[in-house]
Amino acid sequence: MKSLLLVFIGGGFGSSLRYILTKLFNDSESGFPYATLIANVSGSLLIGVIMGLALKNNSISQSTVLLLATGFCGGYTTFSTFAYENHMFLKNGDFFSLALYSLGSIVLGISMVFVGIWLAKSF
């Protein structure tokens, strides 16, 4: 039950922060989903740091991993919104934005996990 509560609390904070990013960074003129890109890339960096610290001599507890990685990062990042936004680019025939957003999100996201793990190992 404690584990579920930790994920619930972390997810609530992560989702709230993602909502704030959406209000601050989405550009209705260009239609480019900057907020989702920012959330997914920064969340990838954060989960890399968290998991890197968890793997480094058990630096952080399993409860902290549940709160921050599973809960916060799970609520903060969003694959479903990413998929929907790509659908909209396809529907609108905006293939350049589709390619830029999809490839950028995947390449940057995976790269940030590696950077996060490297940073954690460097501490």
What does this structure look like?
There is one protein chain. The protein is mainly alpha-helical. The chain has five helices and no strands. It has helices spanning 2-25, 34-55, 62-76, 79-91, 95-122. Helix 2 packs parallel to helix 5. The longest helix has 28 residues, at 95-122. It is globular, with a radius of gyration of 16 Å.
> Helical element count?
5
Helix content: over 70%
Derived structural class: mainly alpha
Gap between N and C termini = 32 Å
What's the count of strands?
0
Dominant shape: globular
Main sheet makeup: none
Radius of gyration: 16 Å
Order of helices and strands: HHHHH
What is the arithmetic mean of pLDDT? 95
Amount of beta strand: under 5%
Low-pLDDT segments, ≥5 res: none
Task: Write a concise synopsis of the structure shown.
With about 120 residues, this protein is an all-alpha fold.
Main features:
123 residues, mainly alpha, 5 helices, globular
Topology:
Layout: H1 2-25, H2 34-55, H3 62-76, H4 79-91, H5 95-122
Helix pairs in contact: 1-2, 1-3, 2-3, 2-5, 4-5
